[in-house]
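Input/output pair, single chain:
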Amino acid sequence: MDDIVEVGTGEVKVSVGRGILRSFAIGSCVVVAAYDSMHKVGALAHIMLPGSAPDGYAYRTRYAADGIDELIRQMAVEGSKKPDIEVCLVGGANVLKKDDDTICKENGESTTRLLAERQIRVRAAVLGGTERKGVSLNLYCGTVSYMEGDGPEQVLWEAWN
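Output:
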């Protein structure tokens, strides 16, 4: 049986060598699925809000900058270096279908900008739309897959070792 680790809203989790990291019911949030094929280290950060957390805020990893920095930190503890980390992005949907709902777009833009500033390569992304999404990172084979709405799981990116 696979070792499956669920990653909830605002959480960052890392795994080494084996298992599956996954996150479901992704609406306006953006999930960063990170993989280091050299060290077989994977991580998911389920980002809820753009930018950085306010001073003193207890749940810092809900914010893009803090979630990304924690993802990099946890992967470094397991031997990863920033040049070896590749990421995929999933989410950023306007699931409420409101014209004035901009958080979904802001989450995607903030996450993409912050990753570029940290020189982390985005290999693939499924952002936007109006359907909820799900994502899984299979560390056995270095594959990131996603689901949209009630649709089937589709491969988004594969690390070629």
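Residues 4-158 form a domain with the 60s Ribosomal Protein L30; Chain: A; fold (CATH 3.30.1330.200). The chain has one domain: 4-158.
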